[in-house]
Amino acid sequence: MKIKNVLSAILLMALSLNLSAQTNGRWSAEKAKKWYAEHAWINGANFIPSNAINQLEMWQADTFDPQTIDRELGWAESLGFNTMRVYLHSLAYKQDPAGFKDRMGKYLAVADKHRIKTIFVFFDDCWNKVGVIGKQPAPQPGIHNSGWVQDPGDPAHKESENFPALEKYVKDVMGHFSKDKRILLWDLYNEPGNSGKLDTSLPLLKKVFEWARSANTDQPISAGLWRWDFEKLNAFQIANSDIITYHDYEAPEWHKRVLMLLKTHDRPMICTEYMARTKNSTFANTLPMLKAQNIGAINWGLVAGKTNTIYAWDTPIKDGSQPTDWFHDIFWPDGRIYRTAETDLIKKLNNK
After folding, report:
1. For this UniProt entry, which residues form the secretion signal (predicted)?
2. pTM (predicted TM-score)
3. Which of 74, 118, 245, 326 shows the greatest Cβ crowding within 10 Å of its Cβ?
4. What is the mean pLDDT of residues 90-101?
5. What's the CATH number where 215 sits?
6. Under a CB-based contact definition with an 8 Å cutoff, are residues 166 and 157 in contact?
């Protein structure tokens, strides 16, 4: 969507809220603000260990690697990061429900050791349409997220016969961890409508909010806004999220206009994706702004690895050579810092 249309689209979204059926149980604004005030400024990264190409490789029993997770979350702690956003996958649960929940618990124990809370993400409309249980593919050189898989996939996301199994997954996981203070928030659906799905994702989006409410968790729930011309999806997400979450990879002058309009909804806010260096969304120009506005800040990427997110979405480098500027990520896989000026700023803002 063209930038010049962003503001009018957000205003249209706000005007359309009364058309979106709101599920029961949404937190009041007062409860949401009280919850937010109980936490230090929320900041951190989207996290997947450097040796996992996707969510399945992170969570399946054969490739779950708490040692790498421990090492890399230690680097996050050194910056003062206090929150990681972490994707789950329903196929890893389907393969082994008890083991999957056990591995989630082990992950949470490691994160808690490093004084890091977790935002868990359920469904996702981004990248490859179909995931397969078992050994995952090797990265394609120079291609951003070449092995990342949607959840539940396409066309599975719109086939209602899949919903009972997905309902069991969501309710079981959320019920199991419903009182766990190590979990900050449940992010129910990443970028609904992406990958050309558009409003076909709306039925599943509505269902996952319904299932999540029935779990009666202590943690708030949300689904992040990300594309301003998705009127129906945006209206439902705003009307049903306890905390407003959103993505913005734009330059700071446009990002600030978006966040100021979203602030009119009078709820706490967390930007759960930002920081794309070649699009002029950087730590230097965006992170101080978010802190000044008391908005949580979760950048994309901690450690460069098999996801290839040092490469831009739309600019593959077929020989796999280093890009002139990394698109995302902060650390090399061996713990070296990509740009010390950035980590110095993050530490300063976190009083480290």
Report:
1. 1-21
2. 0.95
3. 245
4. 98
5. 3.20.20.80
6. no
